[in-house]
Amino acid sequence: MAQKSADLKFSIEKHGIGEVHALRDLTVKITWPFGQTEERTKKAGETVAFAGLKDYIGPYKFETDQETVQITWTGNAWTELDVKSKVALAHPAQLPQDSQRKAQVQQVKSKISMMKLIPANRWGITGKQLMALADQVVQKFTGRDENPNVYEVVEKLIKPLCKESGVSYALLLNPKGIKCSTFVTHAWFESFLAFVDDIRDHYPDLKPGVGCCCTSTAMAQQSSDLKFSFAGNGDGMIYVLRDLTVKITYANGFTEERTRKAGDLVIAGLRLIIGLWKFETDAEVVQINWNGSQWTGLDVKSKAVLAPPAQLPQDSQRKAQVQQVKSKISMMKLIPANRWGITGKQLMALADQVVQKFTGRDENPNVYEVVDKLIKPLCKESGVSYALLLNPKGIKCSTFVTHAWFESFLAFVDDIRDHYPDFETRVFWICFTANPQTWSPAELSDLLGPSALQSPFAIAIQQCDTFLIVRNRSKNLYSRLWCVAELVLVNAYGDCVVEVIGNMPPRAQERGGDIGLNATCSSPEDVEMLRATIEVTGLDANSLVAEAIRARPGTVLRSA
To answer: What global pTM score does this model have?
Structure first.
């Protein structure tokens, strides 16, 4: 039929009996060919009505809260389908005006930390800003000789600066966040200034701020325990990078032991003691030459400090320990969200199971039905998603798929298959295969995290190369606020191609009604959070939605 109902599925049972199935949970008023009317309440996938008897031949009328459907049963086929959509607009007073909506969002933002509204990969600080912080440290701690570690800088400088705003130092400087290019792993016991200098010396594109009174000298090797530098007056200086005891052999042959805490000065004032120095800790032996103005010829020999064999777990013991941890923690929390993928070949195999399960392609179930009757039973015992059931270690996703569950599952798979020549090997992040469908709402809420930007959806969007919008003829996907949020997030924070496939429902609205910012989802808390998240991006969600609705199938809305 040229038209389709978004609420009802008309098919023919194998014995030639006409059937009508609900595509979502609904109440429908039925007017039979002989004039009798009745109301029936059904869940998604349940049978609404049969039409197989001689007396039941003729025109039928089905009325839901969304549409009025008229169709004729000839005795062996459904014909003359006519669908009239009810544009279920809220009363104007119920639709927030722009100023009212902004006030509501501001109210939500006042309750939700910006840390939950900015993606974690944008909690960055530039090298220039890091060097400016180092300058503040020098001033705060009265010159470089004091040389505090990271703990001290956080307690005495960063915490006071950030106390009022309640955000991190990075977001204090960059309220909208800046995308990070380099992740730094380190220990907080280290000298903060040495830490900054090491990074600055490593990257030519890290622009320093005001120069400090003391800088480190770049060396081919580096000691893990000691930091060699020199003061403005020409004295050589040595700092410890962790709590340790060091045996020092001076250039003049004198030896002694000193115990210091991380960041402490080991020795200074070496201008007159020129020659080869030796430093021995529990982890390494370091030899270096002081020529009166700089350190040269650093040589570091590591001591392989291994724990006694009894302290190292044997392979079987370690495996048992890992298994014990895995039994307590779901694999959904041990595998990164961007690896909750399924290949095109695996998706097509699932489609084959759907055809077998639902007795032939004519039945054509929607995603809700496939999840309830096939995916949930398959995943019940393992407690993981369908993607991790197939790929226990996960596989990195290349394509994020945004779509609506009311659509035909088989048409959904076919649309994606027809779009990609490399369909079988491409790895897709699809919500109903990526997320665990057997978990309780409370467990899912915990997995999704405290904000949209920390959810598996957002993580996957930012890691994928392609964002694929799969539209369908049954339901406008942008009546679902999660789909609207995904579209905004990819435009705000994604570095990927955005493509559109599939057709929209007939006469689909581009604006207003229950789409865009007026879209909803099942949780009122999610509605508040998602609208606040969208607002923070500064993007016009309604314009992005209208563009995605207008686009022809196969359109590339944005290049990477």
So the answer is: 0.57
Residue 432 pLDDT more than 80?
A: yes
Phi and psi angles of residue 429, each rounded to the nearest 5 degrees, phi first: -100, 110
Determine the Cα–Cα distance for residues 546 and 282; give it in Å rounded to an integer: 66
Beta strands in 372-465 (DSSP E): 399-402, 427-430
pLDDT in tens, 53-65: 555 788 889 999 8
Please answer whether residues 9 and 23 qualify as being in contact, where contact means their C-beta atoms are separated by less than 8 angstroms: yes
Q: From the CB of residue 163, how many other CB atoms can be counted at a distance below 10 Å? A: 8
Whether 463 and 456 have beta carbons less than 8 Å apart is answered as no
| Token couple for 55 | 């007396």
- Examine the pLDDT at 402 and tell me if it is beyond 90: yes
Instruction: Give the containing element (helix H, strand E) for 284.
Output: strand 284-290
282 versus 331: the higher-pLDDT residue is: 282
Distance CA 189, CA 209 (A): 24
**DSSP secondary structure, 46-99, as one string:** -EEEEE-SGGG-EEEEEE-SSEEEEEEE-SS-EEEEEEEE---PPPGGGSPPHH
Burial class, 11, CB count within 10 angstroms (exposed 0-12 / middle 13-18 / buried 19+): middle
User: Nearest 10 degrees: CA dihedral of 404, 405, 409, 415?
Assistant: 10
User: Closest Cα partner for 32 from 52, 15, 57, 7?
Assistant: 57
The structure tokens listed for 496 are 């990927």
Looking at the chain, the whole-number percentage of residues with pLDDT higher than 90 is 31
Determine the Cα angle at 495 with ends 508 and 486, to 5°.
35
Handedness of CA 112, 118, 124, 128 (dihedral sign): negative
Confidence at residue 93, expressed as pLDDT on a 0 to 100 scale: 36
CA distances from 11 to 22, 78, 133, 271, 332 (A): 11, 8, 69, 94, 38
Burial of 228 (0-12, 13-18, 19+ CB in 10 A): buried
Closest among 270, 263, 264 to 236, alpha carbons compared: 270
SS3 169: helix
Question: Is a pLDDT exceeding 90 seen at residue 367?
Answer: yes
Read off the pLDDT of residues 143-191 as tens digits, 9 standing for 90 and up. 545 678 888 898 888 988 888 878 889 988 988 888 888 999 988 888 8
Q: What distances in angstroms separate CA 392 from CA 225, 243, 384, 386, 395, one per listed residue?
A: 40, 42, 9, 10, 9
Distances (CA, A) of 457 to 33, 121, 398, 527, 549: 47, 14, 13, 16, 21
**What does the alpha-carbon distance between residue 411 and residue 507 come to, in Å, rounded to a whole number?**
20
Residue 111 near residue 102 (C-beta atoms within 8 A) = no
